[in-house]
Amino acid sequence: MFKKIFLFLTIFSLTVFATEAALNEKLTIVYWNDFHAQNTPMQTVKKNADKSKDTVVEIGGTAALLGYINTIRAEHQNNILVLNAGDDFQGTPISSITKGASQIELMNMIRPNAVTLGNHEFDYGLENLNDVIQKAKYPVICSNIIWSKSQKPFVQPYRIVTIKKLKIGILGLMAPDLTLLTMKKNIEGIEVADIRTSAKKYIDSLHFLNADIIILLSHMGIELDTTIAKEFPDIDIIVGGHSHTQLLYPIKKNKTIVVQAGSRGAFLGTLDVDIDVQGDSIVKFDGRLIETLTQNITPDSSVEKKVAAMEEQVNSALGEVIGTLQVNWERRSGKRESNIGNWEADVIRKSCNTDIAFINAGGIRKDLRAGPITLRDIWEINPFGNTLQIFSIHGDTLIQMIMWQANIPSREFLIPSGIQYLYNSELPKEEQNIIITMNGEHIENDSVYSISTNNYVASHLYDFFGVRDENITISETGIIDRDAFIEEVRLQKNISSHIEGRVRDKKDE
């Protein structure tokens, strides 16, 4: 009798286990972010374990990226979701020449399930963006960018993807400080709605539509992603962008899995999840970043041909060698001047004939090794095509501006030309005794100083300097920054620039 009961319970348990296992669905999510139009492969140096000569390898490029995606698609058949977390525009000449249309064309060949907007998608203006995304054959989603007049979403806020038994809700969110991240004129006519209000509104909508899991496709950066993960446990997965964070493996914040794949297609992320359809929860996950080495994959031939045609168009115009770089140009992280930033700031001051110049360190987008300098190099270092502008201020205002600069986050750091200053980051703002000099002399409160910078900085004077632009008259020169840099390279022919101690932090001395 007991044997029969035991046998019955065993069979019952196995049946329940089999039923529960049958209700679980497997899903592979493939993702990348902040591609910045890096359609061609990049070279990188690999350190050899035996300390022999380092190896130069190629990574990335759209054709190789799609080659990896194709391989994963073939392996996982219909259980795959392909996602992009924004900033596919801006960073190479072809994107600037076509105003992003090149990237739409290539993304149409990749066929992602959803793409969210990044801040750089707005760099060519709202009207242009609205036009080019009409040609997208994939869903573009973002829930917190809304038209100012109608208060309706600029693009669809979310989408539902059904894969076998799975109903997947995908929601898009943009960084709340978009007004700082692009030119103000580029986003006239739209607003950035509160991210938390938008998230709650559309999470509720996705629950109403019976989504089994909710994925946030975010272009807000890793810090905000982890904050939102803690505040909204109903979000199962956050696929992020904006901060260019290389999360080699997924991290978990409370109940939410957070991933991000660096930038420029150097990595492709994969996340494998087992989903309890009945319980609407993820029961198991595993993921990693795949380095997109071109030597390990067969590039997609159709994309390879398309990119080659695009690059032929670029090279015919931008392949000319215009000078020679004697030392490596290297950007530097944090609030530190760089040799490339010093040179460019000097060129801005010279071109505008001003006392002082500033360039935003974050706008310098590429290092350059010593050797020939081509037109393309200058375009890639300075992809935004900003114009140079001039304004004048009294010395007391200049002192306040530099005090503000000394106490702002590093992403808003400006490299100066014409002045030097010393501060101490270990002291609170009210105790700072900042020493500012010009040609060895202190700034005079009543003297007038002319300043040049690019129109991005000039349109965000409060953010960068703490001064209101309505109190300052700004003059447009019409000079495009990269044109000034190109002209100066041609003139100097041989370029050598160095760190000079223009900005010094006392704690480091």
Describe the structure in your own words.
With 509 residues, the chain is an alpha/beta fold. It is built from 15 helices and 28 strands. The chain has a six-stranded mixed beta sheet. A six-stranded mixed beta sheet has the order 8-9-11-12-14-13, covered by helices on one side. Strands 21-18-25-20-26 form a five-stranded mixed beta sheet. A hairpin with a 2-residue loop joins strand 23 (435-438) and strand 24. Helix 2 (62-76) runs antiparallel to helix 9 and helix 10 (339-352) crosses helix 15 (481-492). The longest helix is centred in the N-terminal third of the chain and has 22 residues, at 2-23. The protein is globular. The chain starts with a helix and ends with a strand. The model is unreliable at 1-21 (pLDDT under 50).
